[in-house]
Write the structure tokens for this entry.
Amino acid sequence: MAHIVVLGAGLGGSIQAYELRETLTSNDKITVISNKSYFQFTPSNPWAGVGWRKQKDITVEMGPVMKRRGIEFIHDGATKLDPESNTITCESGREVTYDYLVIATGPDLAFDEIEGFGPDKFTESVCHIEHAVKSGDKWEDFCANPGPIVIGAVQGASCFGPAYEYIMTIETDLRRRKIRDKVPMTFVTSEPYIGHLGLGGVGDTKGMLESIFRDRDIKWITNSKVEKFEEHTLHCTEFNADGSEKVKHELPFDYSMMLPAFRGIPALMGIEGLVNPRGFVIVDDYQRNPKYQNIFGVGVAIAIAPPVITPVPTGVPKTGFMIESMVTATAHNIPLIIKGEEPDEKPTWNAFCLADFGDRGMAFLAMPQNPPRNLNWNSQGRWVHWAKLVFEWYFIRKVKKGVSEPWYEKFIMKMLNIDKLKSNT
Ligand SMILES: Cc1cc2nc3c(=O)[nH]c(=O)nc-3n(C[C@H](O)[C@H](O)[C@H](O)COP(=O)(O)OP(=O)(O)OC[C@H]3O[C@@H](n4cnc5c(N)ncnc54)[C@H](O)[C@@H]3O)c2cc1C
């Protein structure tokens, strides 16, 4: 019998536990440890940020679901990992030992790296549901007394999609309230151009997103490094392509949300050979850490080098579909290793994304995620908004039911030949 611990119960960790339940034997024990008692469907957080979703709509209490699936669920935060003794120490003082560990702890949000930044200071956040709900409340106050808005992503950010989604959703909401004319909007980003997305662009995402911004009267500043936030002012410097300083900006705002840089959680920081200097888990082609071969990493918690160096640092996004491919490979490889065989499934890390704009949206597929690619595809329209609603319904339902692949997912995957996109073998 082997004991497998999954650390984190977000988008990656929850389905990792379900998939492992199906690939391991009933003698093997699975434990999930999470610092939150619930799963949150993070992709819907931008909607919560304008009050279109409440916390209860997009969260699922994990204890009862895990129990039904025969998985132990421990609601406790990990404070220390000792990979030499295979031991996790938790906030409560509890120690949990494992034979195999899957780290799925997502990002630690590095708001503290910029003065005045974050939901405890002068800007809003949609990264966690608790932040997004607070932003949604603030949004109502703002709409009663509108002014300039600044949305975007700071230096070192890797997750740009939600910044585009949030500014577009906000723009849609303002038009519906008929106060769009009272709100000058600026998108400020560390990306070298609009639509770069940390991926070097996907097909013509540059042209499409610039065109949508022009159409919706949204100004933009790229290659931006934020110096500090004051209560109603963002101070940033715009850089040229050669890295030289172009111009300094002082942008007034009455409402601002900027995506922060991510890093690994404190419990992992500084573990030589396990994580990189930012605390992200180093993995090989099989999602396994090369030094501690009984440790795997999935989701935002893993290290992926940026495909291109940009004048202002940017990272690579780890999106839902990529994460599912990491989870599937890990669920396949751990049982093989337990049997004494070699792992043989490689995740594709293909990026498929639905970016919602509140009433329509943009979809893109990058295969593989880093250029040059075998396939670049993107499209836009109302269908993306509807597809995102279906995706939200289906994913939350899947987590609630505790199944890794419900019948309708199997059916859709077969129809669209999606298995090919998930697996490399
Ligand atoms: C606002 C936003 C919107 C996004 N929208 C999309 C989208 O539309 N499409 C898409 O493909 N991708 C999207 N992403 C990217 C990505 O899919 C999500 O970030 C996704 O939630 C990442 O999954 P994860 O499992 O790696 O991390 P998370 O879902 O963040 O899960 C991490 C888990 O670890 C737990 N944890 C953290 N620290 C500890 C600790 N010390 N001890 C124990 N547990 C801990 C957390 O409570 C959580 O359960 C979005 C990201 C953000 C931030």
Notes: The longest helix spans residues 382-401. Residues 290 and 352 are 27 Å apart (CA to CA).
